Amino acid sequence: MRFAVRRTIFYLITAWAAVTINFLIPRLMPGDPVTALMGRMQGRIDSNAEESIRVLFGLDTGASVWQQYVDYWGLLLRGDLGLSFTFFPTPVSEIVQQALPWTIGLVGVATIISFTLGTGIGVAIGWRRGTWADALLPITTFFSAVPYFWLGLIAITVFSVTLGWFPSSGSYDRGLVPTWSWEFVGSVIYYGFLPALTVVLSSIAGWILGMRNMLVTVSSEDYVTVAHAKGLPERRVMVGYAARNAILPQVSNFALSLGFVVGGTLIMEMVFSYQGIGYTLFQAVNTQDYPLMQGCFLVITLAVLGANIIADFVYAALDPRARQEG
Amino acid sequence: MTASTLDVPAPTGTVGEPVLEIENLSVDYGYTDDATHVLRDVSLTLHRGEVLGLAGESGCGKSTLAYAATRLLPPPGLITSGSVHFTGRDGQRTDVLRQSDAELRASRWQDTAIVFQGAMNSLNPVYRIGRQIADGILAHRPGMRRKEAWDQAASLLEMVGINADRLRDFPHQLSGGMRQRVMIAMALALDPQVLIMDEPTTALDVVMQRQIVEEIADLRERLGFSVVFITHDVSLLIEIADRIAIMYAGDIVEDAGAQDVYRRPRHPYSAALLHSFPPLRGERRELTGIPGSPPDMQKMPPGCPFAPRCAHVTDVCRQVRPVLGPTALADRGGREAERSVACHLHDADLEGIDGTLPADLAR
Amino acid sequence: MAQDTTFTEEQAAPERAVEHDVDDPRRAKRFLFLRNGKALTGLGILLFFGILAVVGPWIAPYDPNQVSADLLQPPSWSHWLGTDHTGRDILSQIVVGTRGVLVVGLIAGVSATVLGVIVGVTAGFIGGMGDETLSALSNVFLVIPQLPLIIIIAGQLPTAGGVTVALVIGITGWAWGARVMRAQTLSLRKRDFVEAARANGERTWRLVLAEVLPNLTAIIAAGFVGTVTFAVMSQVTLAFIGITPVSDWNWGTILFWAQNNLALQRGAWWWFVPAGLCIALLGMALTLVNFGIDEFVNPRLRSTGMNARLLRRRRIRPRIGFTPVLRTPPDGRPDVGTTARTTRKERS
Description:
Chain A is mostly helical. Helix content of chain A is 76%, strand content 0%.
C-alpha cells in the first residue's frame, strides 16, 4: 500500500499548502484594505468576530508571525472563517456551506458528463484515424479555444433571450420552496440545463483531444498488435486493449487539470448568476468582501483536492501497477 | 517431418508440402508516390514442420516480411502487390491478402500465431495473463465457457514451464523470460500450424535465450507446427533452423539449408554475415565485420543493393539488380540444386562474369 | 555470446520504427515543423494579431474612449462593428485592446516558462530529496485551482494593472511546464551524450546550458505556448468579471461593459460577438501551434501522407492490425524501381 501512503502524504501537504497560501496572501499584499473596511464597520462588529478577522488577515501586528499562524489554524479547525462584510453579520462558513452543494451539483455533474462523453468521442476519433472522423478535430479545437464565459453569453443570447427556452439566470424557480419534491427538482434541472450544457461544450474538447492523442499513441503499442494477431473482435481490441490503457493517463490528467477546469467552470456560475461558490466568489470580489473571498478560495481548493482523491482511487482501480508498486 | 535438436545437426532440405507461400510480395512505407519500398517482390515458402530462419541486419525488412504476410504491419505500411497463400490441414489454399476482415480475423491465431519481439510490451499491462490467454481462445471457440478457457490456459502455462497459479498475475509481476514463455504459451493456445517468432530472445540474457530456444525446439517436436524464426543472430539460427533465408535491403539474397548456408555460403553478403559472428561450435575462426553500412531504403541505388559493400563487385552489379535463382554450382546436384541465391556471380550468361566463383563462395 | 561486430550494436533498435526523425539533422527537423500545415496556420494568425498589437492605436478609426451620439448602433459604414451604450466605437476598442491581450500573454508566458524551466530542469537534474521537494511543490501548485487563486490575489491588490496581472498569472502558472520539463530532463540525463559530457568533467551549469536545454527546446516551446493561452484566457476572464481596471482596454473589458449594460437582453450581438471571436481565434492559433509542436515531438500523432482524399482515391484505409492491400493500381503495377523483373527460375 505504498501508493496509498504516498498519495495521503501528498494530499496532506497540498491541503497544508493551500491553507498556508491563504494565510500568506493578505499578509504579503501591499496596503491594508481590510483595516479601512473595519473602520467603516466600527461598532457593528462584536469583539469576538473582530478578533477572528484580525487573526485571519494578520492585523495583529503585535503577535509574532508564528503565533498568528497557530491562531489561524486554531480558527480554521473550529470552522471559523470570519464574518462576511457583504452579508453582515453572516459567518463566511455558513454562506459557503449553502453555496457548495449547488456548485458540486452543477460543476461536478457537468464535468463528469464532459469527461465521460469526451473520452468516448476521443476513442472513436482516435480509432478511426485518417477517416472523416478527423474532421471533428478543428471543431473541437475551436470550442477549446473559446473562453467559457463567452460561450455562456452566447448560450444565453440564443436559448433564453432569442428562443426563450431556458431561463438566463438563477438556479431554481423562486416561487418554489426548496424541498425534495418533483416540482422543485425538476425546476433545478431546468435551470441548470443551460449552464451545464455550456460547461460541457466548452470543456469537452480538451478531453476529446487528450483521449484521441493517447489512443493514437497506445494503438501502436505491441500489445494492441498482439490483440489483432489473436483475432479478437475489433470492438474488444479497441475497448479492452487500446482504450483501456489510453484511459490511464487520461484519468491522471483529469486529476491534475481539475483545478484548471473548475476555475473555468466557476466563471460560468457568474455568467448565469447561479448561486454556487463561483458566484459567491464573484460577489465577494465585487464588494471587496475579503473574508468571503478567502473562504471561497479555501473551500474550492479543498473540494478540488477531494475530487483528486476520488480520481486517485479510480486510477488505482484501473491500473494494477499503481496498486502494487509505488 | 524434420527433427531438429540442439546437439544433433538438423537434417536439412526435407521438403514437406508448403504451408505458407509468399509470392512477389512488395511493401511500401507511406501512401504517397515518394513512399519507401521496403520489400520488393519477395518470395519465400515455408513447408510443413519446418523451422525457417530469416536473418539479416536491422532494417533489412525481415520483420516487415513477417508482419506483411500476416497483414499486421502498422500504418503507414502498405502491401502493393503479391500474394500469401496459406494451406490448411484440410489442404484448402487461401490467399491471406484477399481475405475479408472477418475471414482474416477468424483465421488468425488458429492458422498463424506470432510471438513478438520484446515481450515487455506484448502483454496488456492491465489484464491478468490468464485472461489474455483465455480471450484469444474464447474469440475462436464461441461455445466454450470461460472456466474451460482458463483451465486450458493453465495447462498451456504448465507446458512452457510456468506454474499455473501464475495465471492470476499481471504482466509486471513476471520476469522478462517468463513473459516470453507466456507469449509462447499464448501463441500455441489454438494449436496453430505456423508460428512466427520475431526476435523472441533478443531482450533476454544468454541463459534465458538458450532455455527459450530449447523450449521452442522441444515444443515443435511435440506439436509439429512450422516456425518462421526471425533474428539477426545467425549463429542461433544455424542451431535451430532447418532452412535459412538471408535478407538484405528488402530482398532475400540467399535461401538454403541451414548447414549449407553455414558451411558453404553462396552469396557474398551471407559469407560476410557469417564471418561477423562467432560460431557456437566447431572450428575457431577470425571474425570480420562488414565494411560500410546498409543502403538508405529511400534512395536505393540501381543494381545490387550490396554492391557498395561487396568484395567481389563487378560492373554489372552496379547496374542490374540480381534476382533469386539457382547457384552456379547447381549441377553438383543434391541439395545444391535446391538452393537459390540472388547474385550475378552465379549467372555465367552475363557479360563480365566468367562463371568461376571466388573461392570462399564455392566451397 | 560475445558479439563485437559492427552491426550488432543496432540489435536493440526495433526494426519496425520506420520514422526517420531521430537521425535527421536539426535543420531538417526545423524545416519539418514549418511544413506542418496546422503550425503554419496558427503562426499566420498570431502574426496578424501581432501586427495589430503594434499598429493598433494608429489604425483604429476612433479613440476607443470617445463617446458619441450614436448610442448602441448596429454595424454600419461609419462604425463597422457598431457602438456601445455611450456611443463608443467597438472596432476601435477591439483594435486598441489587442495590445493589452498580447502583452499580458507574453509577459505571463515568459515568466511562467522561465520559472517552470528553472524548477523542472533543476528537479530533474539534481534528483534525490531536492527533486522530491520540487516535484511536490509543482504538484501542489497544479492541484490548487489557479483561476480562483489569481482572482483572490488580483482582488486584494490595490492596483491590478496589465503587468501585475501578467506577473500573478506567471507566478501561479508555472507548475505544468515544470512537471513536463522534469520528466524530459530525467530521461535526457540518462542519455549517452550527457553522461559523456559529465564524464569529461563538464561543469554542471555548462552541462545544463549546452547539453540539456537545447534538447528541451520543443517541450519548452510547447509549455510557453500553453501558458500564453492560459494567460490570455485568465486575463480576459479577470477583465470580464471586473477585477482589472475597466479603463485598460482589452477584449475582456469590452465583454465586461457588454455584460453589465445588458447587451444580451438588448440583442446587441455586435457588442460581445466580435470580441469573443477574437479571443477564440487567438486561442485557436495558439492551440494549432501547439498541435504542430506535439506532432513534431510525438511522430505517432503525425498524419503525414494521411491525406484523406488521396487515401480514398487509392482506396487505402490505414488501420492498425489490418494492413491495407493495394487492389487495382490505376496504371498497372506501381513503380517499384525495377520494372518487369522475371525471376531467373522462370527464365531457365
